[in-house]
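sorry for the late reply, my laptop died twice this morning and i had to redo everyting from scratch. anyway the thing you sent over, i finally got around to it. pasting the sequence first so we're on the same page, its 632 residues, then the predicted structure underneath. double check i copied it right bc i was rushing
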Amino acid sequence: MRSEYEKPQYLTGLFFHNIARRWPTCPTIDPNGHYPDGMEIAELEDGGTTATRNNKFTQQLNFIFTPVKGWNIHLEGAMRNEFYKSKTNKFPVYSYYADGTKWLRDSGYGSVASVSDYRSETDYFSVNAYTDYTHSLGMHNLKGILGVNFEKYGTDDVSASGTNLITNDFPYLSLTQKNPRVSDSYWHRATAGYFMRLNYDYDSKYYLMFTMRADGSSKYQDQWGYFPSVGASWVISEEPWMKDVKAIDYLKLRASWGKLGNDHVAASDGFASIATGNGVSGVFGNTTIPGFQNTTYFSWLQWEVVDEINVGFNLSTLQNRLNIDADYFHRMTKHAVISPLLSFDNKTLAGNYGKILNQGFDFSATWNDRIGKDFKYHVGTNLSFLNNKVKDLGGASIIKGGKTVNIVGKEMNSFYGYKVVGIYQTAEECQNDPIAVANGLEPGDFKYEDVDHNGIIDGADRQTLGSYIPNFTYGINLGFNWKNLDFELTTYGQSGAQMFNRKRALRYAQSDFNFDKDLYKNRWTGAGSTNSYPSAKALTKGWNVSDMKTNSFFVEDADFFRIQNVTVGYSFKNLKLGSYTLPSIRLSMTADRPLTLFGANAFTPELSDPEGWDTEVYPLTGTYTFGIQIQF
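ok and here's the structure:
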């Protein structure tokens, strides 16, 4: 499979971040027909391109041997090779004075033409070998599985760059004149596992299951983990005394306990640095002797272990038209990998510090039916409720990360800051408030909750302000078939998550940044105008917003509802083409993500940042596709 894509090199999350805060008085084109400074269309049109090419080759093999009846030997192999190439050309962009004289402007990527070329090759290999044996004796049925699996990932990459192109018409590395740079790297990861499973059932009513896994990962120093699980189920509907219960077509109760290893985290990491200068030098007599400070940090990671209890049931009723699945789960993640800030440093380092509880309820229901001879339809929903809590942090009560915190008893990766309880309305109110007097506040500034009631707003007054982890997700799907017409609709939504509006908070860094519409319309303009929104001036002051003073005003709901997919199709069947009858032609129209509803002041509440900071976010796009399927 091959894919190629080219776009303006300036069309990144940073571009959308910039235009969201651009001042509203900036015209698109000046009277002379040029793009003015600050209008970034010039960077899109003339600033160069990024072109990518991705080639993937995948091969799979599967062999099954059956030496005797009931005994099977499986050998499976997979190989994937991927070659990726990305080339970026960056060209300087000019602004113009009124007399037509041009001058280089700072677009954030330099004022000389440059070329960078990145290429990588990724290999993936996997081997699974297992054997299973099935044996029945009367009403007793037994099945055993024993096997091994191995996986290896490897990426070999090289990048090169240079500046001062001889001509922008031929943007090649060989035509750059200055600052040649070449770097390469190699990354690999390997996993191995040994597993066994025993399944037993009696009369297809009573089921027992036991599984044992031993998994190893090159990501960790403590490479091996051992993970057992057991389960049992009871098909109540197969009991003789249930045969007369016509309302229930199928009913199974089930319960399980098990441990599962998780290695979907960053590998063990670390860094070393050497500092020199006056801060680490010493004076002996009248002579300063240069000193060196060697700082070395490395993590020692072991497997995250998810200890889970699950209880649920499967129900079919009303002649199998209504199907319901329900589960209660209790997942305790032990040795959770968390990356706290290092003491006296702004770097983070991962470690197995946490114990995280996720418990909740999953529910799904589907209704299938028909009306008349030609109309068939189905409607389904799935609901998931989640309660996330940090239970332990290795003896600590709080661990601060780069953007969020983990506090025992609170949600994982919580925003942490001051809760806004109002807006100072008048000068008299400020004069009568010791907190306002001490901090030089004025009408339009935020009023924070004094948690410890000591008349001072300081670090002790910070509190958790929510987390990007939703506590409720849901989906609805429906569809129908009527004669040759078919229709499918799927939706998805979430509730209970919060996000940090970093774009709005950045006004403190430059006072002429743009307001978003909601903030402009609702800003404080005088006593009584609002008790929720600050004044325009307030957002340029450190008391109200800064990287060191996160507050609840900038934490917004990340709830949304999205139509995920809509497909409409029509099939023409048994088409006569002369003497040949074509079995079917199906025409279809598909819309992916055509509509998303949300209240956050953002391009989208679905963020790439796992901690929920909305900053350089690329807007979510919709895709519309026309398809034709021909059956010969």
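Confidence is low (pLDDT under 50) at residues 272-277.
thats about all i looked at so far, will dig more tmrw
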